[in-house]
Design a protein that fits this description.
By secondary structure, the protein is an alpha/beta fold. The chain has twelve helices and 16 strands. The strands form three sheets. The protein has an eight-stranded parallel β-barrel. The longest helix has 18 residues.
């Protein structure tokens, strides 16, 4: 991406003021907004020149895990120096290029400079060099083809992974070298000028697509093998423990939908925050709203994040950088599910997010060109809440309850109540403290 010359001064000023990996100040308003993954899309797959209008829109968010290069981030950070910017990864894999599975393949030459600051490029280069030397770090199916998940080539986190033969990888497995890549890049000045840490979404030991891994061949005997979930979780325990210890104190680490077994991978509780994905439309993911609050069969909970995560302190109660203070509640617009295009759905998830102190994100499925903004993201402006969420009688449904939280509206300083209708799945704002 080319940065226009007129942006030069605007890009440099926030870097001089903020410094490398300077501590990020707590957000002083609510709701806190996050822009993640491909939403709204222009940061990844549209015109390679970031326009001023696109940068201005991106700068309205408090957290971004979408831009994949420092030159994407710097014009945005120039407009909002307080923004938290995380390097996003579908972790455990590298980008898929035609011919990657063939020995002797080399990554695109234009990507080579990125190996200094990008863990993805650094790992991709190591994979290529090891393949040339007969060392294969890639999960493969019974026909020898690489296994792809979310369009990335999955690296081997099982006990069958061979140790590297090339250079810095010699004697290391893929998971061990991933830790080297993450830590070396996190200390790189180019990385630190743009990113405040990592956003690791899908990852080994968590959710794996059954279709992608249906024909996994771990021992290369031509027969399918079961998914080594426990082995992967054990490797992630070592990796996350090393990463949490090796990152700078104020560098942030957020995991995608948490499904790591805490008995195998307790380090999954030592991250700053979680991403609560698809809240809460996904079929089979939740029996009712409380599963998204306390944690349920397939999901971590919002309140659960506040209780379970403790990277810095045993309790998350007073820390804005751990627990739900660094957790993202995501509404997903999916074109095949009618309720997700209903305006009430966005209000519902936004109001639910305001029951805690996390970030709200509205994402489209894949690269669908659906709106990633609702009016309430701009019209609801509050000071941070000082009181916790409480339950109140539902005025429309006998025996049911609303989730409520008191806020101070800005700039009027009037008291108001944000409510969540747990029966009809809607949300809104009432004047004063409800019930009166």
């Amino acid at each position: 991406m080319k940065i226009r010359p007129s942006w030069t001064v605007g890009v440099l000023l926030p870097l001089l003021a903020r410094g490398l990996s300077a501590a990020v100040a707590p957000v002083d308003h609510a709701p806190k907004l996050a822009l993640i993954e491909c939403a709204p899309g222009y940061l990844l797959d549209s015109d390679p020149a970031l326009s001023r209008a696109e940068a201005r829109e991106a700068a309205t968010y408090d957290l971004i895990a979408s831009a994949v290069s420092p030159k994407d981030v710097l014009p945005i950070r120039a407009l909002n120096p307080k923004q938290i910017d995380l390097f996003p990864m579908s972790f455990g894999g590298v980008p898929h290029w035609d011919g990657f599975d063939k020995a002797g393949f080399r990554m695109p030459h234009w990507e080579l400079p990125d190996t200094a600051w990008s863990p993805l490029a650094k790992m991709e280069y190591a994979l290529c060099r090891n393949l040339e030397m007969g060392c294969d770090w890639i999960y493969r199916s019974v026909d020898g083809a690489p296994i792809l998940e979310w369009n990335v080539i999955c690296t081997n986190f099982s006990r069958h992974c061979p140790v590297g033969r090339w250079g810095a990888t010699r004697g290391l497995t893929a998971s061990q070298y991933w830790l080297v890549c993450l830590l070396e890049c996190a200390r790189n000045p180019t990385f630190r000028s743009a990113f405040d840490g990592y956003w690791l979404d899908t990852y080994p030991g968590g959710y794996r697509d059954p279709k992608s891994f249906a024909h996994l061949d771990l021992d290369h005997d031509g027969l399918p093998d079961p998914m080594p979930t426990a082995e992967e979780a054990a490797q992630m325990q070592v990796l996350l423990a090393g990463l949490e210890k090796g990152l700078l104190p104020k560098q942030i680490l957020i995991l995608g939908q948490d499904q790591l077994d805490p008995k195998i991978c307790p380090a999954g509780r030592m991250v700053n925050g979680w991403k609560l994905e698809d809240c809460p439309w996904q079929p089979g993911s939740s029996r009712w709203l409380l599963d998204w609050w306390t944690g349920g069969r397939r999901t971590s909970g919002y309140w659960h994040a506040q209780q379970a995560l403790h990277r810095y302190e045993t309790s998350s109660e007073n820390s804005p950088f751990q627990g739900w203070g660094m957790t993202v509640v995501e509404a997903m617009k999916h074109p095949s599910v009618p309720q997700t295009v209903n305006p009430a759905y966005g209000r519902f998830v936004l109001a639910f997010t305001l029951m805690g102190d996390g970030y709200f994100a509205l994402e489209t499925f894949g690269t669908q060109k659906l709106s990633t903004r609702i009016p309430e993201m701009d019209s609801w402006k509050f000071a941070p809440a000082r009181e916790p969420m409480y339950w109140a009688p539902d005025p429309k449904h006998k025996g049911a309850s609303w989730m409520c939280r008191t806020y101070t509206r800005l700039p009027s300083r009037e008291t108001c109540t944000v409510w969540v209708d747990t029966t009809e799945r809607d949300g809104g704002v009432l004047p004063g403290k409800y019930p009166r």
